[in-house]
Amino acid sequence: MSRYSAAALVLVGAAMSACAPDPEKERLEATTRATYDPQTGRLQRLTYDSNKNGTIDTWTYMEGTRILRAEVDTNEDGKIDRWEIHGTGNTLEKIGFSRADDGKADAWAFQRADGKIDRVEVSTKRDGAVDRWEWYVADALARAEEDTNGDGKADKWETYAAGALETVAFDENNDAKPDRRLTYAAGALKLIETDPDAAGKYTKRITPTR
């Protein structure tokens, strides 16, 4: 084969490659769509296929180049199950999720600078009012506070060790201070403490018997 024939074959091959469909390009064109404000021309929304399966699962709401929030359907069941709220500088402020997986956010996670969870705020009644606060260390639940009667003050306090419940204390006279504390080990109740003095030290201790 002459060098001219070889060159011709290369050119033909290149032309065929240029005409061949590009699945990745087609997927991007089908799932990446921009919506603009008809008055200002500023970008308002972008759609995205985050897992590259050809289905739009992420909707990012914009104000020009500024990201306001993103809504994600991670399991593609037709309901949003992740909400990402951004602040100034397009920094991620908090992530919402639905514990009931019904398209309604009822808990919000706040991250540290390293991307790990710092705390989670929960609306246990799913009415939008936060009444439980959880703090995490190394992605494990370390402690929590809860307002069980809706008066705006914590009346239940929990501590955890390696993610397992260690103590839970209760305010039983609505003075925003613990009056009774239960201590657990290996999931079993080991100690009940009551009647705290003025300094908050429990004066009565009961060891449950099996």
Task: Give the tally of β-strands.
Answer: 15
Strand order of the largest sheet: 1-2-3-4-5-6-7-8-9-10-11-12-13-14-15
List the total number of helices.
2
Shape: elongated
Biggest sheet details: 15 strands, antiparallel
**Average of the residue pLDDT scores:** 89
Q: Percent helix among the residues?
A: 10-25%
Strand content: 35-45%
Radius of gyration, CA atoms, in whole angstroms: 28 Å
In terms of structural class, how would the helical and strand content be classed? Answer: mainly beta
Q: Output the helix-strand order.
A: HHEEEEEEEEEEEEEEE
The N- to C-terminal Cα distance equals: 93 Å
| Unreliable residue stretches | 1-12
Short description:
This protein has two helices and 15 strands. With 210 residues, it is mainly beta.
Helix-strand layout with pairing:
Elements: H1 3-19, H2 23-31, E1 34-36, E2 43-48, E3 58-63, E4 66-72, E5 82-86, E6 92-97, E7 107-111, E8 117-122, E9 132-137, E10 140-146, E11 156-161, E12 164-170, E13 180-185, E14 188-196, E15 202-206
Antiparallel strand pairs: 1-2, 2-3, 3-4, 4-5, 5-6, 6-7, 7-8, 8-9, 9-10, 10-11, 11-12, 12-13, 13-14, 14-15
